[in-house]
Structure formats: structure tokens, C-alpha cells
Write a structure and sequence with these properties.
Helix content is 34%, strand content 22%. The protein is built from 14 helices and 19 strands.
Length: 460
């Protein structure tokens, strides 16, 4: 049987889909090149916003309609929306074959076997306290995701993630390091550590460093120690992580950014609002001043660090003054990129009980204003790179111009350049930046400084 997984949502969902795909391959299933040719289609869903759920429900409906022509096709759903809607999904989509909870995805191969044997509408919720989730990988080229923190305990007023992904749990450091070493041995040069609030790694009471020797660099906090240990893996050239929270932007984290060359100079640090009143209503746990202080702590150690963020417009009760406070914070923070979202209530969250009193038209206006503000900030930040040289990890031909190549800088900026002779994906390339737009750098005089092939030889 062939399978295809359609993924909505965040990088955590992308990683979960890959892990489930690895479980299916291990069970004897084959990957299909697209959903049209697949015997089994699984939709991995997101519940963070209503729009994401609507897209997933629409996709599931179309897939189930396709069973009229292909009655043997199996259609299932996993992820956050499956956890939230549970068995009601079968009433919404009667032709759906199975649904699994967000920490029960490892059971998908056996569930598909049950359906092949005649079972119908299988619902497997699992337990949100279950930490036995799949962590397998498929061949992934030069970059890979590694989950280090499951779930979330923060309970922001608008967020359904704790209800659908469960409580926080940090994986043992030795397990994470072993996974990273195996990935590097397979050719991976860059890993991204994932967690809903990744800087809380090791802060839930687990001793993730049980039995380990002290940090050679003197780190005492769990996450900087993890970065240090991963940076010591030969052949691992870059380490990224997401998403952050200001409370985790400690002096030790700033030192890790500064002193570990493999730690990429970029942090995604959601702010959500610049209004202290709205931040308090959102239960974010910091003020705008504390957020900016966290940025200054990081920039004091690494002046060229790139900061990206998430912002919600139109939260219940957000006034024009609140909105202008967000605009002021954006300018003060000098964000390299901002992902702007229009507030939508999530069932069961505290904010869902509030009156959604900002009109759709006003949400749309505020969204457009912030996008324009961010374009201006991005253009200014990009312009600071013009005339400078920077290191880029080559990824392959540019999507818009196959004669040129693209890659990412340590700051997670896309850079487009003329490929030097013999360049390969994974090579480190020194590029002189000659032009910039809000989100892309354009360079010339590219020269290879670190060969992927040479890295492979180092490991043998």
C-alpha cells in the first residue's frame, strides 16, 4: 500500500508527519509521490486558528469524496484538530476511516491494518500524558527537525495548544544527541530543535542531564548545555531552534549564541502585542519593556542576531491605542520579519468567552498596516547587509531563476547568488551582498569555504 501525508500548520506538524511516515515505511508501506496516487492519505491538522481547521476539513471532505471512484482508499486524520474534535469528526465527515489523537500517531500503521481487516471509523485518542511518540526520520538532505520538547504549560488566554498537545515534557539530552549524531552520519548539516516553548527545555522537573559530566563551558541551564553538546558533534555545522519566549532569553543563552559558532544567529520570539494591557489579558507573562530588554540582552552579545516574531491583531478589547503600542514596539524591536495573524477565538480557551469586538474590517486594516510597517523594517535591515560578506549554506537552484542558487545565512535570511563551480547542497559559501529586498539578499563573488564532501570525510 502507498501513502501520502498532507500537512497543515507549524514546523512541529511537519516533524510529526515525517515521524509517522518513517513508522509507515518501517511497517512496509511505500511513499506515494502525490496524494492522487496514494492508497492511504493522512491529513495532519492544526487548531491554532479557525482558518487552518477549515482548510483541513475541506481537504478531508474532498479526499473522502474521491472514495466513490476508489472505494479501497483509506483516509485518516491526525494532529491537533483531531485531538480537539475527536469522534465528532465522523459526524462531520461520515466517510472518514480513522482519527488519532496528537500523541497517538505511532498507532497509525496498526490502525490501517484494522481497517484493512474490516474495521470502520476507528478513533484512537491516546493519552496526552503519553510521551512515547515516534521520532524516526526519512532521508532528508542537508537539514532536519529534531523535537526536544513536547506540549506546553503556558496557558496563554487565546491558545488551544496545551489542550491538544498536552503537558510539557523534555526528552533526555542523551536521546536528542544520539538522534542528532545519526542524522549527521546520514548527511544532515543543519538541525532545527523544536518545542512549543523550546527555551523551557529541561525546566519541568525532569533531570535531562542525569549522569552527564559537567558542561565544559560552564553552562548550568539545560538548553544552553544542549546547544553546547550538539555543537561538539563533528560535521554538524548549524543549529537552529524555535519557538522562544522572553523568559528564556537569559545571559547563558546569549553567551551560547556568542560562543558557539554552530548556533545560528536567529531567534523566533513571538511578542503577540506591544500593549502591556493586552499582554496581561493574553497571559503572556511579560511586559513590552521586559520583551525589549530580552532583545537587548541577546543583541549585546550578538549585535547582528536576527529576530522574527508573531503578532495578533484584533484581540478582544484591542483599542487603537493598543494597536499603536504594537507599532511602536515593532519599530523599537527592529524585527527582521513578523508573521501577522488576525485574532480568531478558539473553542475552550479563556479568550473565547470574551466579546470578539474588533470588526473583521478593522482586523484586516490593522493587519495590512503592520505588514507595511514590517516591509519597511525588513528593507532597512536588509540594506545593512549590502556591501558586506556573509556565509550562506547552499541549498540548490533558486526557485525563480534556476541559473542562480539560494541558501540561508546564519540569520535565516534567504540569499540568492551565482553558484561557484562545483557547489553542492550543504556547502558553506562566502557571498558578498550587493542588493536586498525586505526578505531576500542578493549576492555575487561567491566562494566555497566549507565543502559538504569534506565534512563527510571527517566523519569516516
Amino acid at each position: 500500500m502507498t501513502f501520502f501525508i498532507h500537512t497543515y500548520g507549524c514546523q512541529m506538524n511537519v516533524r510529526d508527519s515525517e515521524a509517522v511516515a518513517a513508522e509507515l515505511v518501517r511497517a512496509g508501506y511505500a511513499r506515494a509521490p502525490d496524494e492522487d496516487s496514494a492508497d492511504l492519505v493522512v491529513v495532519n491538522t492544526c487548531s491554532v486558528r479557525e482558518k487552518a481547521e477549515d482548510k483541513a476539513l475541506g481537504k478531508l471532505g474532498l479526499l473522502c469524496k474521491s472514495k466513490r471512484e476508489r472505494p479501497s482508499r483509506v483516509v485518516g486524520v491526525m494532529g491537533c484538530m483531531a485531538q480537539r474534535m475527536a469522534e465528532s469528526l465522523f459526524r462531520r465527515i461520515p466517510q472518514l476511516d480513522f482519527a488519532v489523537g496528537s500523541r497517538a500517531a505511532r498507532h497509525i500503521p496498526s490502525i490501517v491494518g484494522e481497517i484493512a481487516a474490516g474495521a470502520t471509523q476507528v478513533w484512537f485518542p491516546g493519552e496526552l500524558s503519553d510521551f512515547d511518540v515516534p521520532h524516526g526520520h526519512l532521508p532528508s538532505g542537508i537539514a532536519a527537525f529534531v523535537t526536544v520538547l513536547l506540549g506546553c504549560n503556558r496557558r496563554c488566554s487565546y491558545c488551544i495548544v496545551p489542550d491538544v498537545r498536552g503537558p510539557e515534557h523534555s526528552r533526555p539530552a542523551a536521546e536528542v544527541i544520539a538522534e542528532a549524531k545519526a542524522l549527521v552520519a546520514s548527511g544532515v548539516r543543519e538541525i532545527t530543535l523544536l518545542g512549543q516553548s523550546v527555551l523551557r527545555y529541561g525546566r519541568q522537573g525532569e533531570d535531562v542531564w542525569a549522569g552527564a559530566a559537567p558542561s565544559p563551558m560552564g553552562f548550568t541551564e539545560p538548553f544552553p548545555r544542549l546547544l553546547e553538546a550538539l555543537a561538539a558533534i563533528p560535521g554538524l555545522r548549524r543549529i537552529r531552534f524555535t519557538s522562544g519566549h522572553p523568559s528564556g532569553c537569559t545571559a547563558e543563552l546569549a553567551r551560547a549564541f556568542r560562543d558557539l559558532p554552530q548556533a545560528c544567529r536567529h531567534l523566533h520570539l513571538p511578542v503577540q502585542s506591544g500593549s502591556d494591557r493586552i499582554l496581561r489579558e493574553m497571559r503572556r507573562g511579560y511586559t513590552s519593556g521586559e520583551y525589549l530588554a530580552a532583545l537587548e540582552r541577546l543583541r549585546g552579545a550578538v549585535p547582528d542576531i536576527s529576530i522574527t516574531t508573531d503578532i495578533i491583531v484584533g484581540y478582544p478589547g484591542e483599542t487603537e491605542d493598543d494597536f499603536e503600542a504594537t507599532r511602536r514596539l515593532m519599530r523599537a524591536a527592529r524585527f527582521d520579519n513578523s508573521f501577522i495573524f488576525k485574532y480568531s477565538p478558539r473553542p475552550g480557551t479563556p479568550s473565547a468567552a470574551l466579546v470578539d469586538d474588533v470588526t473583521p474590517e478593522e482586523k484586516d486594516r490593522r493587519n495590512k498596516v503592520l505588514l507595511a510597517d514590517q516591509d519597511e523594517l525588513g528593507l532597512g535591515n536588509g540594506g545593512e547587509w549590502v556591501g558586506r560578506e556573509t556565509e550562506v549554506m547552499a541549498e540548490g537552484p533558486s526557485l525563480r531563476n534556476k541559473s542562480r542558487w539560494s541558501g540561508r545565512t546564519s540569520q535565516n535570511k534567504i540569499a540568492v547568488f551565482d553558484p561557484p563551480e562545483g557547489v553542492r547542497p550543504g556547502d558553506l559559501v562566502r557571498v558578498r551582498i550587493v542588493r536586498a529586498n525586505p526578505q531576500t539578499l542578493f549576492g555575487e563573488d561567491a566562494a566555497i569555504t566549507g565543502r559538504a564532501a569534506a565534512i563527510g570525510k571527517e566523519q569516516k
